[in-house]
Write a structure and sequence with these properties.
This protein is mainly alpha-helical and about 190 residues long. It has 9 helices and no strands.
Length: about 190
């Protein structure tokens, strides 16, 4: 008979996910995970498995709750160009300071292709954005805001790369003015 969990799994996953986003996989210890969740290591292992399992669970949580929410909030509006601007600017307008960054981008930089399960989840997140960017570009082309002579798949991939680049820049560029200029140039490249 299994013991019922006496903690909120969603809250624990959210806290662990934020810790991994801030600190990275390698710098996060099981003691750190205990500290942010208030759970002892035995409870963590019983609920989630070892550190790698916790991390993969955190990536799943991030995809389902952060990436999906960002897409839903910013990329489903009426004006495709404003949707793109909103997504890019929220990476820095909403989070100036040490809390900047994206778990997917940080993980891609830290782990890259060295761990297949992690790599698979990072690629899944990037593809989520790429699919949405493709739909936005097609809508922008249909509305006459983006030239129909440009390949929508290439533009979607360009936006994906630009978005990942912006998520790196927000960690080192401290002024909204400069980041707004980067965003403007990304949007200008579409037209």
């Amino acid at each position: 008979m299994t013991r019922e969990k006496d903690f909120d799994v969603v809250v624990a996953r959210r806290e662990m996910t934020q810790l991994f986003r801030r600190s990275g996989y390698r710098a996060t210890s099981m003691k750190d995970l205990e500290a942010v969740t208030g759970l002892l290591s035995g409870s963590l292992y019983n609920a989630f498995g070892g550190k790698q399992d916790v991390f993969l669970s955190s990536l799943d949580f991030y995809l389902a709750n952060v990436v999906k929410r960002r897409i839903d909030e910013h990329l489903h509006g009426d004006d495709p160009m404003e949707c793109i601007r909103a997504l890019f600017t929220t990476t820095y307008h909403a989070a100036l300071g040490k809390e900047r960054g994206c778990l997917l981008t940080n993980t891609a930089i830290e782990i890259g292709m060295h761990d297949k399960p992690t790599h698979t989840k990072v690629i899944a997140g990037i593809r989520m954005f790429e699919r949405e960017f493709l739909e936005l570009v097609k809508r922008g082309q249909a509305a006459g805001k983006i030239p129909s002579t440009k390949d929508p798949q290439k533009l979607a991939r360009q936006l994906c790369v630009s978005y990942q680049g912006m998520l790196v820049l927000v960690k080192v560029v401290a002024t909204k003015k400069v980041l707004d200029e980067y965003t403007d140039s990304i949007l200008d490249s579409l037209t």
